[in-house]
Amino acid sequence: MGAAHEHPLSGYTVVDLSSGIAGAYCTKILADGGASVVKAEPPEGDDLRRWSASGAEIAAGSDGALFSFLACSKQSVVADPEDDDAVERVHALLAGADAVVWSRGSRLAEHPRLAPQAIRQAHPRLTVTAITPFGLDGPWHDKPATEFTLQAWSGGMVGIGRGDPGRAPVHVGGQVGDWLSGAYAAAATLTSRMQSLRTGRGRLIDLSMLEVHILTLTYYPVTFHELLGRPFRSVRSLFVPGVATAKDGLVAIGCATGQQWSDLCAMVGHPEWIDPDKPISIMETAAKVAPELYAWVRERTVAEVRELASSFRIPNAPVSHGANIAGMDHFAERKMFRPNPRDGFLQPDFPYRLSPAVLREPEPAPRLGEHVVEPKPRQDKESSADSGLPFAGLRVLDMTAFWAGPSGTHLLAMLGAEVIHLESSTRPDGTRMIAGIPFTEPQWWEQSPIFAALNTNKKSVTLNFQTERGLALVCDLIAGCDVVVENYTPRVLDQIGLDYEAIKAIRPDAIMVRMPGFGLDGPWRDAAAFAYVIEDASGLTWLTGHPDQNPVEPYTLGDPNAGLHALNGLLLALEHRRKTGEGMLVESAMVDAAVNIAAEQVIEHSAYGALLSRDGNHGPVSAPQNVYRTAEQDEYGGRDSWVAIAVSTDEQWRALAAVVGKPDWAADPTLSDAAGRRARQGEIDEHLAQWCLQRTGDEVVDRLWPAGVPVAKVLNPHRQPEIPQLDARGFWETVTHPVAGKGRYSTLPMRFSDSAEPAHRRHAPLLGEHNTEVLTGLGLTEEEIASLAEEGVIGEHPAW
């Protein structure tokens, strides 16, 4: 392979001291980029080698299919933590590495000499990425937790009001928080690499999985509540139509805007459902007419519903799962799945596509202890003074809107990049409308907490690129930017001649990140893509909900997951440009990113013939695992207060039995192991429900947590500030917006040991606030800028 097509991370060595999905997915992203990943394991191996979500038997000497996917292109060495020489050999590996990814869970990683702080002290030029439930310090740093209880603490079980209000809140299935934590850890590790290349120093990255859950499973609820004095939604509800039953399967239809609701009413032949004289919300109207809507869907096939909905530009998708997704025409045409290089089952392809194609083709996962890796001496430059925030000096043109694109560019802005957010007065960013502020109120478009929380540190320029002058100025902006990010449907930029080839002609070393919903080609290329549609099409929806009902869309994670993966693709592209001077096209389709964090479904079906399905709040990791109603009223005076309990080990079960008083049912010896508890989980649920119902949530937590049992209150998202761990880690920063007011804003889910800079250094921009600054920088005079305003090419308020 020629130098121009060298892998971006060739020569970058990573030691993997993690266990479980989060660390494995982090190091998979790095290995895909060409890093040399050495997995250091105790003699019994990573628990993930013996894991199957469906309970499939893993033969001795072989590995679970999920491990075989996540460990592609890695090496395995064994070190016995009881052997001092073996621990010393691990330190020798670390001395020659660039980064280490660490999490609890293995005897080796939990050796005192291999704790994150000990590694950092011994190897100060090494980046140490630690992934833990709550962070390495703070009052909760050593509390037991599972992905399930973290969802409860974060508010993610409630999300933006998801779920049947007549039933218990339901978690998002598929261990999504672990996958998202891995993607964040990869981005943080690559970000640290950029600084290390400049300074010669490493750093400790302290990533909190709880904070990842907050940023990906909830929608800036604290900022929303504090700026507007009300929660995003005060009650849980099912989204209608959402997932509906057609003649031949499940189909999803969604309405995120008033226009889409009007179009849906016209499509089903009920224009009378649109009543301009009655200002009632779409959700309330849809709930009233739901029976008629669902009857209309039942009379048609999935293909018929989708064809009609697409013609009306109404977001829609088939509901995918492990058994059907690989055969869907769009995924088949785009070759989204490939055989595992060792075991042959189907696995997702990369979550982004880089052009030129510099990602490493997956190589077989290693057998336990298959490799002998000789430590390599590091050729470090002398340590120099820190050059500021990681992305200082990087200029980004942010042509994105809503959540997916802006969330990725926001991470860049918080970490020092100059991000110019491009809007127009005829088409402001859609999140400016998410507040319920009447259009009659002055500056209503500046009062959205969602826009405010997503866009701090950015600049706003309004240019109508549908005009000749506007498009010319966009091209001038591109010439001065390192990176261009956009998330329109592909036809938008194609129609105005602003695809990657055009951008490369303007600036040859530019990196263009395109974030279409379904990709730049394939049958679904031009389909409307909102978070819930991506969740439906990728399989994320399938695992969420109660088994006796249609699945429920998570409604949140499709967007931030896409932004996070786009950032990882961009970081690899920046590394490619650093080495070669070349620009790059990063095609980061939202659905490709979602398919990757839903990988376990297609892997389990292909490898074992098992269809993973939703099971309410039960799950494959813990038994018992569920939410239970508590004695107190909720903040609205209802009976909707719950706790989440997840027992992952036999030791935790014994501790729970002791806390509840060792009644006869808990002392039953058939419940002493996980298989027995899983077989009788319904009975256990009944007993625990009665026990919890006699206590408040705080009482349940105060009794179970000290005993070592993972437990959590199921918080409404806007109550996240009640968690003392977040304050201790400085997760909240107070920002004052000149129109929206003062409130707390979430920051980043990781702490860099050498950074004391606040994440939010400036409030989100007013519409067009930086027109004069940026256009003057392009050489325009005051008179020319005034002329652009008169012509409507630029503006500082919506043009309606």
From TrEMBL:
Biased composition (Basic and acidic residues): 363-384
Keyword Ion transport included in the entry's annotation: no
Example of a GO MF term: CoA-transferase activity
Domain of life: Bacteria
Keyword hit for S-adenosyl-L-methionine: no
Keyword set, alphabetical order: Transferase
Positions of region (Disordered): 363-387
Name this protein carries in UniProt: CoA transferase
